[in-house]
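pasting for ref
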Amino acid sequence: MAKSPNINIDFKVLQDKLRSQFSDLDPNDPSLWPALPRNLLLVAVCAAIIGGLWFFWLKDVDAQLLGAQARETELRTTYRAKLVQAVNLDALKKQLEQVQQYVTQLEKQLPSKAEMDALLSDINQAGLGRSLQFELFRPGQVTVKQYYAELPISIRVTGSYHDIGLFAADVANLSRIVTLNNLSLAPGRDRNTLSMEGTAKTFRYLDQEEIAAQQGGKK
């Protein structure tokens, strides 16, 4: 039977050969280095280049991932909001119709600019119809708001407590909106009479010229 040859490796000699390849290396000219250190340097440079490219690529991908995640969160929020609106669409339409009807009803209670004189006459007649004596009935300066105009009227009437109360109720029941503000009561000149002083405010919707002026002022 043939015997396999014995392989004797002198590790000390091998280590000395390897060590000798790394001694006296010229850092300015790696091309003159022995094969082992030259190849190791090549591997190290390639690894550094690949690692750098990988790092910058991953950094860009990470930024894209964060942006996509933020976009996903935004889209989910928008989707939920639109889903709620879609589910409640019929209810929202009904609410819109109710609001429009309410606004239309309120607009009908606001006189136009041409109807203001008639409304002032109605307020005056409401007091005269309750046997009240007007000591003061003075319309003030019109204040134009965003959607309507407000007219304050300074009033002072004299009459019985009962008639003054009925006058206030009559004003509240007018077809147009009229409010009584800053009311004060004082004894009248005659016995069993009171004097009521305050400000009646009425409102009217703006005409087209006033609306145009308002919109022009916002620009």
